[in-house]
Every structure is written in C-alpha cells, then in structure tokens.
Automatic annotation (TrEMBL):
Stretch forming the signal peptide: 1-19
Keywords assigned by UniProt, alphabetized: Signal
Name used for this protein in its record: DUF5648 domain-containing protein
Domain DUF5648 intervals: 222-359
Domain of life: Eukaryota
InterPro entries with a match to the protein in the record: CAP_sf, DUF5648
SUPFAM superfamilies, A to Z: PR-1-like
Keyword NADP: no
C-alpha cells in the first residue's frame, strides 16, 4: 500500500507539472510592434548576409497562438504547428521585449557557422537563434506568461526553420545579393524587403504623442470585390457602387476587409487620402496614399479618394494591413489571410509578386 501511495503521489505530481498553467501577461500592441522592430534590427545586424528578409507586420492569429503556448509554460518547441516557434524563459521580473532578441543575437554569435549544417537537437539556445534569424520572414506575433518564478515569452512566425539548414547565408560583400523575387532589395535595416516596407521607429509611450495619434471616430467599411472574367480587383466605400456590383455575374464579394477613416481629423494628423487610380486600357485599379509613388503610375487616371489611412501599423491604432501584389496584367490589393499567404508562398508561381503594404486601416 505504501508503494502504491508513493507511485500515485509521483503520478499526481507529474500530472501537475505537465498541466502547468501560467498567469497571462500578454504584450500590449505597442510592445508587439517594438518586438518586431527589434527583430528587424537584430536580423539586419548580421552583416554580409545574402538572403535575410524583413518582418512586415504583427499577425493576430500568431499572437493568439503564442499567448496560448506561453500560458502552457512550454519547455520545448511544439512540433504540431505550421508556424515557426521560438521561446525563452527569463527571470520573473523580466519584461521580455528586449531580452528576446538580445539572447537570440548572443546565441547566433555562439552557434552560427557560415555554410555549415546546424542540428540544434534539444538545445533551446540554438533553437532560439535559428528561428529568430531564419532567412524567410513575413509576419510574427508574441505571447507572455508568468510560470512560477519565470517569465515565458513565445513568438510565432510565418516560416518554420529547417532542422539541418543554416538560418541564413553569409559571404563578404554580398549583403542582400540573393533576395527573393517578392522581397528584392535591401531596406534601411539592410534586409531583403520591398522599398522600405518593414522599416519603422520604435513606438514611444509619450502621452503627448498618444493624444494626437488616436483612432479616428468616423470609420467606413472598405469592401473588396473581384471580377473573375476581367481579373479586376476593386476596393470600395461608396454604398451606391457597392450596391451596383453586388450580385453581378462573375463578381465575388469578399466583404469588408477593414475600415477606413471618412475624413481628416485632428485626432490622427497622420491620416493620408487613399487615391483610387484607374487604367482604362488594362481595366485595373490601383490604390495609393504615398504621393511620392503616384508619379510612377503612368497610364492611370486619379478618379477620387475612397477614404483615409496611415502608413504604418499602430499609427492611430491602425491594425489591419492592405497588401499589394504586382503582376504583368496589373496590381491586386487584398486583405491579410489565406489568399495573401498563398500568393506569398507561391514565389511568383501565379505571376503575382509581393510589392509591400499599401497602407494600414482599422478593424
């Protein structure tokens, strides 16, 4: 009986360890943006890399996944997910925002050997460096929880590192030499990107800036339509146009992909008009907020403003990116989701190449 009691006690203790549950301490949106920027800064610090890509936005699904994993107090990288996953265990009083990339950089210096196979096995330090510095990158999201006397931080990524491959390629004088087709050139962080997508300043907690960078009060739904016979893509806010297109033969209504501001407001001085350009010969629409890019739209006519948006995530609390892909026929603007992921991972198979984020709007 005594032996049975000991076994039962051991099993109960083992079960409690397996079922360890942390106290949620999720990151604020500003911290998510800061962590992504710190990732880009750390990745760009790897001089002479050939193919390291920029991270361009925070993905809410990845945030949710990472938060759940953190609250489970994980002690190993899960193998049942398509996300790339990295985690770190820190002292209880650590915030984990800066420490995550600081440790990853430290371990990258320790483990990375150019051109050699890397097999991390069960080494958490090696796993952290390899995932954070994996050359393919697009979106990410992080979670945090208190587990006993430790803080556990978990981050999820669009791409999962390959067990035996080096995280990136490095060669003297070869910075960004082998960038992919959809992130073809070096940005300000020295990362393969498109224009300066992925380049941002770390958000400041200044109350003065917060007061003049608030979410606009008046928002309007931004509807997306796709006409398959002509491969024409449309973003609309006008109720009359929306009513005319709904139900037309060959027309797919993707519903609201987010909301745009209806007019400028002092609450968000960073608002910029979304200009709608139309090319009659190609029968294509293009949507742009950056005036410096508009001069390149030869053959397109500006036919009006459909709403107002901002350049970057978290500006005036904007949290929804509108992607743009280019093709020989013309551009396509679409929401984050399966369709965008399919095009991103196709590497140009569908004749669409990643061209960055056109602008940011609101849920």
């Amino acid at each position: 009986m005594w032996l049975v009691g000991v076994v039962c006690a051991a099993l109960c203790l083992s079960g409690s360890v397996l079922a360890e549950t942390g106290i949620p301490k999720p990151f604020h949106r500003r911290d998510q943006v800061t962590m992504r920027i710190l990732h880009n800064m750390a990745r760009g610090s790897r001089l002479n890399h050939l193919n390291m890509e920029c991270l361009i936005s925070t993905n809410d699904y990845m945030v949710k996944y990472a938060q759940t994993a953190a609250e489970k107090c994980i002690r190993a990288v899960p193998n049942d997910t398509t996300y790339g996953v990295a985690y770190i265990r820190l002292p209880k009083d650590a915030a984990g925002v800066k420490e995550f990339t600081e440790k990853a950089t430290e371990y990258d210096d320790l483990f990375y050997s150019p051109g050699e196979e890397e097999h991390c096995a069960a080494d958490d330090r090696c796993q952290l460096h390899k995932q954070v510095f994996w050359h393919e990158a697009h979106e990410m999201g992080c979670g945090r929880a208190i587990c006993g006397d430790e803080t556990v931080v978990v981050c999820a990524y669009s791409y999962k590192h390959e067990p035996l491959s080096p995280p990136y390629l490095q060669f003297p004088g070869a910075q960004c030499l082998q960038c992919s087709e959809y992130k073809p050139s070096c940005n300000s962080y020295n990362l393969c990107c498109n224009d300066d997508s992925g380049y941002e300043l770390i958000p400041t907690p200044s109350s003065e800036i917060a007061q003049c960078s608030q979410r606009p009060d008046k928002l309007n739904r931004l509807m997306r339509f796709w006409h398959q016979p002509t491969t024409k893509n449309m973003l609309l806010t006008d109720p009359t146009e929306i009513a005319m297109l709904s139900g037309q033969p060959g027309m797919t209504e993707y519903g609201p992909i987010g909301r745009v501001a209806t007019m400028p407001t002092a609450k968000c001085p960073q608002l910029m008009p979304i200009n709608r350009f139309y090319n009659e010969e190609l029968n294509f629409n293009y949507y742009e907020i950056r005036s410096e890019r508009m001069h390149a739209l030869r053959g397109y006519k500006n036919i009006g403003i459909i709403g107002y948006a901002v350049k970057g995530e978290n500006i005036c609390e904007a949290d929804v990116p509108v992607y743009v892909f280019n093709s020989p026929k013309g551009p396509i603007h679409l929401q984050r989701g399966e369709e965008a992921t399919k095009l991103l991972r196709s590497g140009g198979t569908y004749n669409y190449t990643w061209a960055g984020i056109a602008f940011w709007i609101w849920k």
